[in-house]
Specification:
alpha/beta, Metallo-beta-lactamase, Chain A, Rossmann fold, 7-stranded mixed beta sheet, 12 helices
């Protein structure tokens, strides 16, 4: 047996990715939280009480990284060294600190555990071989966000590829995933296994047209945006089609943009991105926020699902000729979902009707169905483990009909190979 995999999260669900892989060592792949759950409370991975030889973090999004400080609140894992790329380390410093500020006492760890986590980081570079006993680990570009990686584990003559979140298609920010050619076991992100994304260039052109039309009508375009990845890509898209429209960047995306520029090797066109960032206004306070809605402009602001962030404040000041455009997924029950589906927001328990036009354009940073199937065909695994998706049982059944040994594990389930 080369691998014993325990699924601690992200199994028949999206969120709280966490997988304990036992070879001759105990290795944890990701350790995230599920922030938006129907219960209204964050959900965490299943507990385990074994010492770890290493923790590998695929990328910085909280559904993969947000529970990492808890390792240092648990005596069995309090000395675990974790490995991730330099951008990933800097990004989680921002994201996890922000989550602690927002969720406060809901989280089962404290600032001391967060600070200890930062001290136990070991840099891991793309294509670098890392050895833990008889287990070799390599990271490759996942094309998802800055510093995101796929994780390749080799043990006892067998290879396991864990994709994490990935995007094989080129975007304005990234070249696309660069996975290994073949692996014996493929543990694959299936967020959009049952759905295809629209053509990206068509979406860019649609966004550019919507911006031009709104600006010509003296309105403002509000783009509620994920601070990590999406805000940066939107800057690039806007400037690719319109060099002159005023663009305001607000929220946590400002600090994250600095991290992106700090690590140019992880970007497709770092010089172009730096130039475009220099052409926009970074909102510094109330005066800038007032100016942003006084003239026709584009505002890129957190939060992407309108659950907090400056975007909500902008929304109440937009003139009647303005428009709201979402470019990312909105979890059911969030304000973004309510606005798209019901035309209203929940502000401090009060429902507020919004009369402005609202639209959704799909700029997902995840692979769509065609690319998921394409990666499976390329890697040609003996076993496919479908994770991080709400429809993984259906997708695994479809793969079995195609001749693959495919499974969709439940939380707590163990897989031996």
């Amino acid at each position: 047996m080369a691998f014993e995999i325990t699924c601690l999260g992200a199994s028949q669900e999206v969120g709280r990715s966490a997988f304990l892989v036992r070879t001759d060592k105990n290795i944890l792949l990701d350790y995230g939280i599920k922030i938006f759950d129907k219960s209204g409370q964050p959900k965490y991975p299943e507990e385990f009480n074994q010492p770890l030889d290493a923790m590998i973090l695929s990328h910085a999004h909280l559904d993969h990284s947000g529970y990492l400080p808890y390792l240092y609140a648990n005596s069995a894992t309090s000395k675990t060294k974790w490995f991730g790329t330099p951008p990933t380390r800097d990004l989680i410093e921002i994201l996890i600190a922000d989550s602690m500020k927002i969720m406060g006492g809901k989280l089962p760890f404290e600032a001391t555990h967060y600070n200890k986590m930062l001290k136990y980081w070991i840099p891991a570079m793309l294509k670098q071989s890392m050895h833990f006993g008889n287990t070799e680990i390599k990271l490759s570009d996942a094309g998802h966000i800055s510093g995101s990686t796929m994780v390749e584990l080799t043990h006892a003559g067998k290879t396991l590829l864990y994709t994490g979140d990935y995007k094989t298609e080129k975007t304005r920010m990234h070249e696309g995933a660069d996975p290994v050619n073949e692996a014996d076991v493929l543990m694959i992100d299936c967020t959009y296994a049952m759905r295809e994304h629209p053509d990206r260039i068509s979406m860019e052109e649609k966004l550019a047209d919507e911006i031009e039309e709104t600006i010509d009508n003296d309105g403002t375009v509000l783009l509620p945006s994920f601070s990590l990845g999406r805000s940066q890509e939107l800057i690039r898209i806007i400037r690719a089609y319109n060099r002159d429209v005023p663009v305001y960047l607000d929220g946590m995306g400002k600090a994250i943009t600095d991290v992106y520029m700090k690590y140019p090797a992880y970007l497709r066109d770092p010089k172009g991105f730096r130039k475009e960032v220099g052409s926009i206004t970074r909102v510094k306070g109330p005066e800038d926020r007032m100016n942003a809605t006084k003239e026709p402009a584009v505002i890129v602001s957190s939060a992407g699902m309108l659950e907090g962030g400056p975007a909500l404040g902008y929304l109440t000041r937009l003139n009647p000729d303005s428009k709201i455009i979402f470019t990312g997924y909105n979890v059911e029950g969030t304000n973004g979902w309510r606005l798209l589906n019901q035309g209203e927001l929940n502000i401090d328990g009060n429902l507020l009707s919004v009369e402005l036009p609202v639209e959704y354009l799909d700029f997902s940073a995840h692979a769509g169905r065609k690319d998921i199937l394409g990666l499976i065909e390329k890697v040609n695994p003996e076993k496919v483990i479908c994770v991080h998706g709400d429809s993984t049982p259906e997708f695994a059944a479809e793969l079995r009909e195609k001749g693959y040994d495919a499974v969709a594990p439940k939380i707590g389930e163990e897989i031996l190979f």
